[in-house]
Amino acid sequence: MQVVDLTFKISKSSLFALHPFVKNIQVDRAYSLEVEGFNISKLSIYTHSGTHIDAPYHMVKEGFKLDAFPLDKLFGEAIVLNVNVGEYGEIHAEHLEKALQSSKLEVKEGDFLLINTMWWHKYYDKRYDSEYLAERHPGLFMDAADWIISKKFALVGIDVMSIRHPSLAPKYTGIKPERVHVKLLSNNILIVEQLVNLDILNNRRVKFGVFPLNISDLDGSPVRACAFI
Question: Does residue 60 carry a pLDDT above 90?
Answer without folding.
Answer: yes
